[in-house]
Amino acid sequence: MLIRAAQFGKCFVESIDSEDYVRMCRLLRVLNSVRDRRIGIPITFTELFYSGHKFLLDRLVTRRQYYLAICIAKYLKMPDKDGSSRILVHWAKYKVSQPQLDEESVAREIANKFGYASGISYSDIATTAANCGRKQLAIKLLDHESKASEQVQLLLKLDENKPALLKAIESGDTDLVYMVILRLRDNMPLADFKMTIRNFPVALSLYIKYCRQHNPQALNEIFIQEDDFNSQAQGFILESLDEKKTHTQDASLTSAVEAYKKARNDVSFSICEEALRLLKYQRSLKDKINEDLVGKSVHDTCTRLLELKDIKEAERMRSNFKIPDRRYWWLRIKCLADAHDWIELEKFSKSKKSPIGYAHFVDVCLEKNNISEAVKYLPRVSEDIIVKYYVKANKLEEAAQIAYEQRDIQGLLYVQSKSAAQSSLSEKINAQISLLGARK
Protein backbone atom coordinates (compact mmCIF):
# COMPACT_ATOMS: atom_id res chain seq x y z
CA MET A 1 0.00 0.00 0.00
CA LEU A 2 2.87 2.38 0.79
CA ILE A 3 4.49 1.72 -2.59
CA ARG A 4 1.21 2.39 -4.39
CA ALA A 5 0.77 5.60 -2.36
CA ALA A 6 4.28 6.70 -3.31
CA GLN A 7 3.66 5.91 -6.97
CA PHE A 8 0.42 7.96 -6.85
CA GLY A 9 1.93 10.83 -4.87
CA LYS A 10 4.99 11.41 -7.13
CA CYS A 11 2.63 12.37 -9.91
CA PHE A 12 1.79 15.55 -7.99
CA VAL A 13 5.40 16.59 -7.27
CA GLU A 14 6.86 18.81 -9.96
CA SER A 15 10.32 17.88 -11.42
CA ILE A 16 10.66 14.75 -9.25
CA ASP A 17 13.44 12.25 -10.05
CA SER A 18 11.90 8.77 -10.26
CA GLU A 19 15.27 7.03 -9.92
CA ASP A 20 15.07 6.71 -6.14
CA TYR A 21 11.59 5.18 -6.39
CA VAL A 22 12.72 2.65 -9.03
CA ARG A 23 15.85 1.72 -7.05
CA MET A 24 13.82 1.13 -3.90
CA CYS A 25 11.33 -1.06 -5.77
CA ARG A 26 14.22 -3.17 -7.09
CA LEU A 27 15.70 -3.59 -3.62
CA LEU A 28 12.36 -4.54 -2.14
CA ARG A 29 11.85 -7.15 -4.80
CA VAL A 30 15.34 -8.58 -4.11
CA LEU A 31 14.67 -8.66 -0.37
CA ASN A 32 11.36 -10.44 -0.92
CA SER A 33 13.07 -13.03 -3.12
CA VAL A 34 15.73 -13.96 -0.56
CA ARG A 35 13.22 -13.89 2.32
CA ASP A 36 11.21 -16.61 0.60
CA ARG A 37 11.02 -19.70 2.77
CA ARG A 38 12.73 -21.76 0.06
CA ILE A 39 15.81 -19.49 0.37
CA GLY A 40 15.56 -18.51 4.02
CA ILE A 41 17.72 -15.35 4.26
CA PRO A 42 15.65 -12.92 6.39
CA ILE A 43 17.92 -9.93 5.71
CA THR A 44 16.66 -6.41 6.44
CA PHE A 45 17.02 -3.33 4.26
CA THR A 46 19.48 -1.81 6.74
CA GLU A 47 21.64 -4.95 6.75
CA LEU A 48 21.68 -4.95 2.95
CA PHE A 49 22.57 -1.26 2.87
CA TYR A 50 25.62 -1.69 5.13
CA SER A 51 26.84 -5.09 3.93
CA GLY A 52 26.41 -4.40 0.19
CA HIS A 53 25.00 -6.33 -2.74
CA LYS A 54 28.15 -8.38 -3.21
CA PHE A 55 27.84 -9.77 0.32
CA LEU A 56 24.29 -10.93 -0.42
CA LEU A 57 25.46 -12.68 -3.59
CA ASP A 58 28.23 -14.45 -1.64
CA ARG A 59 25.64 -15.83 0.81
CA LEU A 60 23.55 -17.14 -2.08
CA VAL A 61 26.60 -18.70 -3.74
CA THR A 62 27.55 -20.39 -0.47
CA ARG A 63 24.07 -21.98 -0.47
CA ARG A 64 24.59 -22.89 -4.16
CA GLN A 65 21.67 -20.69 -5.24
CA TYR A 66 23.56 -19.81 -8.43
CA TYR A 67 20.59 -19.13 -10.67
CA LEU A 68 18.94 -16.71 -8.19
CA ALA A 69 22.27 -14.99 -7.58
CA ILE A 70 22.75 -14.42 -11.32
CA CYS A 71 19.18 -13.12 -11.70
CA ILE A 72 19.70 -10.65 -8.82
CA ALA A 73 23.07 -9.49 -10.22
CA LYS A 74 21.52 -8.78 -13.62
CA TYR A 75 18.41 -7.19 -12.06
CA LEU A 76 20.55 -4.81 -9.98
CA LYS A 77 22.75 -4.14 -13.07
CA MET A 78 25.94 -5.07 -11.28
CA PRO A 79 29.25 -5.23 -13.27
CA ASP A 80 30.07 -8.72 -14.61
CA LYS A 81 33.30 -8.98 -12.63
CA ASP A 82 31.32 -8.54 -9.35
CA GLY A 83 28.13 -10.22 -10.53
CA SER A 84 27.37 -12.91 -13.09
CA SER A 85 30.97 -13.74 -14.13
CA ARG A 86 32.11 -14.22 -10.55
CA ILE A 87 29.04 -16.36 -9.77
CA LEU A 88 29.64 -18.54 -12.84
CA VAL A 89 33.25 -19.12 -11.76
CA HIS A 90 32.01 -20.28 -8.33
CA TRP A 91 29.52 -22.57 -10.06
CA ALA A 92 32.20 -24.00 -12.33
CA LYS A 93 34.60 -24.64 -9.44
CA TYR A 94 31.81 -26.50 -7.63
CA LYS A 95 31.12 -28.55 -10.76
CA VAL A 96 34.73 -29.63 -11.29
CA SER A 97 35.08 -30.63 -7.63
CA GLN A 98 32.33 -33.27 -7.97
CA PRO A 99 34.18 -36.56 -8.61
CA GLN A 100 31.01 -38.44 -9.66
CA LEU A 101 30.44 -36.20 -12.72
CA ASP A 102 31.80 -37.19 -16.15
CA GLU A 103 34.79 -35.05 -17.12
CA GLU A 104 33.82 -34.70 -20.77
CA SER A 105 30.28 -33.56 -20.01
CA VAL A 106 31.46 -31.15 -17.28
CA ALA A 107 33.99 -29.53 -19.61
CA ARG A 108 31.40 -29.21 -22.35
CA GLU A 109 28.77 -27.78 -19.97
CA ILE A 110 31.18 -25.18 -18.59
CA ALA A 111 32.33 -24.17 -22.06
CA ASN A 112 28.74 -23.81 -23.30
CA LYS A 113 27.79 -21.74 -20.25
CA PHE A 114 30.81 -19.44 -20.35
CA GLY A 115 31.58 -19.12 -24.03
CA TYR A 116 34.23 -16.42 -24.18
CA ALA A 117 32.68 -14.12 -21.58
CA SER A 118 34.95 -11.36 -20.28
CA GLY A 119 36.30 -11.54 -16.76
CA ILE A 120 36.28 -15.34 -16.62
CA SER A 121 39.55 -17.24 -16.25
CA TYR A 122 39.42 -20.85 -17.39
CA SER A 123 42.89 -21.38 -15.94
CA ASP A 124 41.57 -20.54 -12.46
CA ILE A 125 38.88 -23.21 -12.82
CA ALA A 126 41.39 -25.64 -14.33
CA THR A 127 43.67 -25.10 -11.33
CA THR A 128 40.80 -26.07 -9.02
CA ALA A 129 40.20 -29.21 -11.12
CA ALA A 130 43.89 -30.09 -10.92
CA ASN A 131 43.91 -29.60 -7.15
CA CYS A 132 40.96 -32.01 -6.96
CA GLY A 133 42.98 -34.64 -8.83
CA ARG A 134 41.12 -34.24 -12.14
CA LYS A 135 44.11 -33.59 -14.41
CA GLN A 136 42.45 -34.48 -17.72
CA LEU A 137 39.51 -32.19 -16.96
CA ALA A 138 41.95 -29.36 -16.21
CA ILE A 139 43.65 -29.91 -19.58
CA LYS A 140 40.30 -29.88 -21.40
CA LEU A 141 39.31 -26.61 -19.70
CA LEU A 142 42.63 -25.01 -20.63
CA ASP A 143 41.78 -25.40 -24.31
CA HIS A 144 39.24 -22.59 -23.80
CA GLU A 145 41.64 -20.22 -22.01
CA SER A 146 42.32 -17.11 -24.10
CA LYS A 147 45.55 -16.10 -22.32
CA ALA A 148 48.40 -18.26 -23.60
CA SER A 149 50.66 -17.41 -20.65
CA GLU A 150 48.17 -18.80 -18.14
CA GLN A 151 47.60 -21.89 -20.30
CA VAL A 152 51.31 -22.58 -20.48
CA GLN A 153 51.98 -21.96 -16.80
CA LEU A 154 49.38 -24.51 -15.67
CA LEU A 155 50.38 -27.09 -18.29
CA LEU A 156 53.95 -26.92 -17.00
CA LYS A 157 52.66 -27.29 -13.45
CA LEU A 158 50.79 -30.42 -14.58
CA ASP A 159 54.01 -31.77 -16.20
CA GLU A 160 52.42 -31.55 -19.65
CA ASN A 161 55.65 -30.38 -21.26
CA LYS A 162 54.96 -30.99 -24.94
CA PRO A 163 51.46 -29.40 -24.89
CA ALA A 164 52.92 -26.42 -23.00
CA LEU A 165 55.63 -25.94 -25.63
CA LEU A 166 53.12 -26.33 -28.45
CA LYS A 167 50.76 -23.73 -26.91
CA ALA A 168 53.67 -21.31 -26.45
CA ILE A 169 54.72 -21.70 -30.09
CA GLU A 170 51.14 -21.26 -31.34
CA SER A 171 50.84 -18.03 -29.33
CA GLY A 172 53.65 -16.44 -31.35
CA ASP A 173 55.12 -14.98 -28.13
CA THR A 174 58.90 -15.49 -28.33
CA ASP A 175 59.44 -14.67 -24.67
CA LEU A 176 56.86 -17.28 -23.67
CA VAL A 177 58.59 -19.91 -25.84
CA TYR A 178 61.93 -19.07 -24.25
CA MET A 179 60.37 -19.37 -20.79
CA VAL A 180 59.08 -22.87 -21.57
CA ILE A 181 62.37 -23.97 -23.16
CA LEU A 182 64.46 -22.85 -20.19
CA ARG A 183 61.99 -24.36 -17.71
CA LEU A 184 62.13 -27.70 -19.56
CA ARG A 185 65.93 -27.58 -19.69
CA ASP A 186 66.16 -27.02 -15.93
CA ASN A 187 63.56 -29.63 -14.92
CA MET A 188 64.11 -32.47 -17.42
CA PRO A 189 67.03 -34.87 -17.91
CA LEU A 190 69.28 -33.43 -20.62
CA ALA A 191 68.76 -36.34 -23.01
CA ASP A 192 64.95 -36.10 -22.69
CA PHE A 193 65.09 -32.34 -23.18
CA LYS A 194 67.08 -32.68 -26.41
CA MET A 195 64.73 -35.33 -27.76
CA THR A 196 61.69 -33.20 -26.89
CA ILE A 197 62.89 -29.94 -28.40
CA ARG A 198 64.09 -31.47 -31.67
CA ASN A 199 60.45 -32.29 -32.52
CA PHE A 200 59.60 -28.58 -32.56
CA PRO A 201 61.63 -26.75 -35.27
CA VAL A 202 60.62 -23.27 -34.07
CA ALA A 203 61.63 -24.00 -30.49
CA LEU A 204 64.86 -25.63 -31.67
CA SER A 205 65.75 -22.54 -33.74
CA LEU A 206 65.09 -20.23 -30.79
CA TYR A 207 67.15 -22.44 -28.47
CA ILE A 208 70.03 -22.43 -30.96
CA LYS A 209 69.84 -18.62 -31.05
CA TYR A 210 69.90 -18.52 -27.25
CA CYS A 211 72.89 -20.87 -27.07
CA ARG A 212 74.83 -18.78 -29.60
CA GLN A 213 74.71 -15.88 -27.17
CA HIS A 214 74.89 -17.65 -23.81
CA ASN A 215 76.05 -21.27 -24.10
CA PRO A 216 78.34 -22.19 -27.05
CA GLN A 217 79.06 -25.62 -25.58
CA ALA A 218 75.36 -26.58 -25.57
CA LEU A 219 75.11 -25.24 -29.13
CA ASN A 220 77.88 -27.54 -30.30
CA GLU A 221 76.19 -30.50 -28.58
CA ILE A 222 73.02 -29.80 -30.59
CA PHE A 223 74.96 -29.70 -33.86
CA ILE A 224 76.70 -32.97 -32.97
CA GLN A 225 73.33 -34.58 -32.21
CA GLU A 226 71.92 -33.41 -35.57
CA ASP A 227 75.11 -34.31 -37.51
CA ASP A 228 75.21 -30.70 -38.72
CA PHE A 229 78.90 -30.56 -39.63
CA ASN A 230 78.72 -27.18 -41.36
CA SER A 231 77.29 -25.50 -38.26
CA GLN A 232 79.87 -27.28 -36.09
CA ALA A 233 82.62 -25.85 -38.27
CA GLN A 234 81.15 -22.34 -38.05
CA GLY A 235 81.18 -22.65 -34.26
CA PHE A 236 84.86 -23.66 -34.28
CA ILE A 237 85.70 -20.71 -36.56
CA LEU A 238 83.95 -18.26 -34.23
CA GLU A 239 85.86 -19.81 -31.34
CA SER A 240 89.15 -19.31 -33.19
CA LEU A 241 88.32 -15.61 -33.63
CA ASP A 242 87.73 -15.10 -29.91
CA GLU A 243 90.53 -12.87 -28.61
CA LYS A 244 90.23 -14.47 -25.17
CA LYS A 245 91.06 -17.92 -26.62
CA THR A 246 94.13 -17.20 -28.76
CA HIS A 247 95.90 -20.22 -27.22
CA THR A 248 93.35 -22.57 -28.82
CA GLN A 249 93.20 -20.99 -32.28
CA ASP A 250 95.13 -23.83 -33.95
CA ALA A 251 92.96 -26.50 -32.33
CA SER A 252 89.74 -24.67 -33.25
CA LEU A 253 90.74 -24.26 -36.90
CA THR A 254 91.87 -27.89 -37.06
CA SER A 255 88.44 -28.95 -35.75
CA ALA A 256 86.76 -26.71 -38.35
CA VAL A 257 88.82 -28.34 -41.12
CA GLU A 258 87.75 -31.81 -39.95
CA ALA A 259 84.08 -30.77 -39.73
CA TYR A 260 84.06 -29.32 -43.25
CA LYS A 261 85.76 -32.47 -44.48
CA LYS A 262 82.95 -34.59 -42.99
CA ALA A 263 80.37 -32.24 -44.53
CA ARG A 264 82.12 -32.57 -47.92
CA ASN A 265 82.19 -28.80 -48.19
CA ASP A 266 85.31 -28.56 -50.36
CA VAL A 267 85.38 -24.78 -50.72
CA SER A 268 85.10 -24.05 -46.99
CA PHE A 269 87.50 -26.92 -46.26
CA SER A 270 90.22 -25.41 -48.45
CA ILE A 271 89.66 -21.90 -47.02
CA CYS A 272 89.98 -23.15 -43.43
CA GLU A 273 93.00 -25.26 -44.31
CA GLU A 274 94.70 -22.22 -45.83
CA ALA A 275 93.78 -20.09 -42.80
CA LEU A 276 95.38 -22.71 -40.52
CA ARG A 277 98.49 -22.77 -42.72
CA LEU A 278 98.65 -18.95 -42.62
CA LEU A 279 98.33 -18.95 -38.83
CA LYS A 280 101.25 -21.38 -38.44
CA TYR A 281 103.35 -19.41 -40.93
CA GLN A 282 102.67 -16.12 -39.09
CA ARG A 283 103.77 -17.72 -35.81
CA SER A 284 106.99 -18.87 -37.45
CA LEU A 285 107.67 -15.26 -38.55
CA LYS A 286 107.41 -13.88 -35.02
CA ASP A 287 110.97 -14.83 -33.99
CA LYS A 288 112.43 -13.88 -37.35
CA ILE A 289 111.07 -10.33 -37.72
CA ASN A 290 110.36 -9.73 -34.00
CA GLU A 291 106.78 -8.72 -34.74
CA ASP A 292 103.44 -10.47 -34.19
CA LEU A 293 101.49 -10.80 -37.45
CA VAL A 294 98.99 -13.40 -36.16
CA GLY A 295 95.44 -12.53 -37.22
CA LYS A 296 96.41 -10.46 -40.25
CA SER A 297 95.29 -11.40 -43.75
CA VAL A 298 97.60 -12.70 -46.48
CA HIS A 299 97.46 -9.24 -48.08
CA ASP A 300 98.44 -7.41 -44.88
CA THR A 301 101.13 -9.94 -43.96
CA CYS A 302 102.79 -9.66 -47.35
CA THR A 303 102.54 -5.87 -47.21
CA ARG A 304 104.29 -5.81 -43.83
CA LEU A 305 107.11 -8.01 -45.11
CA LEU A 306 107.61 -5.65 -48.05
CA GLU A 307 107.59 -2.66 -45.71
CA LEU A 308 110.33 -4.37 -43.68
CA LYS A 309 112.20 -4.93 -47.00
CA ASP A 310 112.30 -8.67 -46.42
CA ILE A 311 111.88 -9.36 -50.14
CA LYS A 312 113.03 -12.95 -49.90
CA GLU A 313 110.38 -13.84 -47.33
CA ALA A 314 107.72 -11.88 -49.27
CA GLU A 315 108.58 -13.84 -52.44
CA ARG A 316 108.38 -17.06 -50.48
CA MET A 317 104.97 -16.11 -49.10
CA ARG A 318 103.83 -15.11 -52.57
CA SER A 319 104.69 -18.57 -53.83
CA ASN A 320 103.29 -20.53 -50.86
CA PHE A 321 99.97 -18.68 -50.70
CA LYS A 322 99.59 -18.17 -54.46
CA ILE A 323 99.32 -14.39 -54.39
CA PRO A 324 98.44 -13.27 -57.96
CA ASP A 325 101.19 -11.45 -59.87
CA ARG A 326 99.02 -8.37 -60.35
CA ARG A 327 98.37 -8.02 -56.62
CA TYR A 328 101.99 -8.67 -55.66
CA TRP A 329 103.28 -6.07 -58.14
CA TRP A 330 100.81 -3.49 -56.88
CA LEU A 331 101.86 -4.15 -53.24
CA ARG A 332 105.54 -3.90 -54.13
CA ILE A 333 105.05 -0.66 -56.07
CA LYS A 334 103.01 0.93 -53.29
CA CYS A 335 105.45 -0.05 -50.53
CA LEU A 336 108.46 1.29 -52.47
CA ALA A 337 106.62 4.56 -53.15
CA ASP A 338 105.61 4.89 -49.47
CA ALA A 339 109.27 4.40 -48.53
CA HIS A 340 110.34 6.96 -51.23
CA ASP A 341 112.77 4.35 -52.54
CA TRP A 342 112.70 5.63 -56.14
CA ILE A 343 115.91 3.88 -57.23
CA GLU A 344 114.58 0.46 -56.17
CA LEU A 345 111.23 1.27 -57.79
CA GLU A 346 112.96 1.94 -61.12
CA LYS A 347 114.97 -1.28 -60.82
CA PHE A 348 111.81 -3.21 -60.08
CA SER A 349 110.06 -1.74 -63.12
CA LYS A 350 112.91 -3.03 -65.33
CA SER A 351 113.14 -6.48 -63.70
CA LYS A 352 110.55 -7.88 -66.06
CA LYS A 353 107.41 -6.82 -67.91
CA SER A 354 104.80 -5.45 -65.50
CA PRO A 355 101.58 -7.53 -65.40
CA ILE A 356 99.64 -4.41 -64.36
CA GLY A 357 101.18 -2.01 -66.87
CA TYR A 358 103.08 1.15 -65.95
CA ALA A 359 100.23 3.53 -65.26
CA HIS A 360 100.38 2.51 -61.57
CA PHE A 361 104.04 3.54 -61.42
CA VAL A 362 103.00 7.00 -62.59
CA ASP A 363 100.11 7.10 -60.11
CA VAL A 364 102.23 6.35 -57.03
CA CYS A 365 104.88 8.91 -58.07
CA LEU A 366 102.22 11.59 -58.55
CA GLU A 367 100.63 10.72 -55.21
CA LYS A 368 103.99 11.52 -53.60
CA ASN A 369 104.30 14.72 -55.73
CA ASN A 370 107.39 13.38 -57.48
CA ILE A 371 106.74 14.44 -61.09
CA SER A 372 110.33 13.88 -62.22
CA GLU A 373 110.05 10.17 -61.32
CA ALA A 374 106.60 9.91 -62.87
CA VAL A 375 107.97 11.22 -66.21
CA LYS A 376 110.34 8.21 -66.41
CA TYR A 377 107.40 5.82 -66.71
CA LEU A 378 105.15 7.90 -69.00
CA PRO A 379 106.58 6.55 -72.31
CA ARG A 380 105.84 2.99 -71.12
CA VAL A 381 102.16 3.64 -70.40
CA SER A 382 99.78 1.83 -72.80
CA GLU A 383 98.70 3.80 -75.88
CA ASP A 384 95.01 3.91 -75.03
CA ILE A 385 95.62 5.98 -71.86
CA ILE A 386 99.03 7.59 -72.53
CA VAL A 387 97.52 10.97 -73.46
CA LYS A 388 95.48 11.03 -70.26
CA TYR A 389 98.56 10.29 -68.13
CA TYR A 390 100.71 12.94 -69.82
CA VAL A 391 97.95 15.43 -69.00
CA LYS A 392 97.81 14.04 -65.43
CA ALA A 393 101.56 14.78 -65.14
CA ASN A 394 100.91 18.29 -66.53
CA LYS A 395 102.90 17.57 -69.72
CA LEU A 396 100.38 19.14 -72.07
CA GLU A 397 102.77 19.82 -75.01
CA GLU A 398 103.88 16.19 -75.11
CA ALA A 399 100.28 15.00 -74.66
CA ALA A 400 99.12 17.08 -77.64
CA GLN A 401 101.98 15.79 -79.81
CA ILE A 402 101.23 12.14 -78.95
CA ALA A 403 97.51 12.64 -79.64
CA TYR A 404 98.37 14.22 -83.00
CA GLU A 405 100.68 11.32 -83.91
CA GLN A 406 97.89 8.90 -82.96
CA ARG A 407 95.50 10.96 -85.11
CA ASP A 408 93.26 11.18 -82.04
CA ILE A 409 91.01 14.22 -82.39
CA GLN A 410 89.19 13.46 -79.13
CA GLY A 411 92.53 13.28 -77.34
CA LEU A 412 93.51 16.69 -78.77
CA LEU A 413 90.23 18.19 -77.61
CA TYR A 414 90.81 16.71 -74.15
CA VAL A 415 94.29 18.29 -73.95
CA GLN A 416 92.89 21.59 -75.22
CA SER A 417 90.23 21.55 -72.47
CA LYS A 418 93.04 21.36 -69.89
CA SER A 419 95.08 24.23 -71.42
CA ALA A 420 94.43 27.94 -71.02
CA ALA A 421 92.12 29.52 -73.61
CA GLN A 422 93.77 31.69 -76.34
CA SER A 423 97.17 30.18 -75.43
CA SER A 424 99.75 29.21 -78.05
CA LEU A 425 99.15 25.51 -77.22
CA SER A 426 95.41 25.92 -77.76
CA GLU A 427 96.01 27.55 -81.17
CA LYS A 428 98.50 24.81 -82.08
CA ILE A 429 95.93 22.16 -81.20
CA ASN A 430 93.31 23.92 -83.36
CA ALA A 431 95.75 23.79 -86.28
CA GLN A 432 96.46 20.08 -85.66
CA ILE A 433 92.74 19.30 -85.54
CA SER A 434 92.27 21.16 -88.84
CA LEU A 435 95.09 19.19 -90.49
CA LEU A 436 93.67 15.87 -89.27
CA GLY A 437 90.20 16.89 -90.51
CA ALA A 438 91.59 17.83 -93.93
CA ARG A 439 93.42 14.50 -94.28
CA LYS A 440 90.15 12.65 -93.68
TrEMBL record:
Please give the InterPro entries that the UniProt record associates with this protein: VPS16 (IPR016534), Vps16_C (IPR006925), Vps16_C_sf (IPR038132)
Q: Name one GO cellular component term.
A: endosome
* UniProt-listed Pfam families: Vps16_C (PF04840)
Q: Gene3D superfamilies under this entry? A: Vps16, C-terminal region
Q: Name one GO molecular function term.
A: actin binding
Q: Which domain of life is it from?
A: Eukaryota
Which GO BP terms apply?
endosomal transport; intracellular protein transport; vacuole fusion, non-autophagic
Q: Where is the Vps16 C-terminal domain?
A: 120-422
**Name of the protein this chain belongs to:** Vps16 C-terminal domain-containing protein
The source organism is Photinus pyralis (Common eastern firefly)
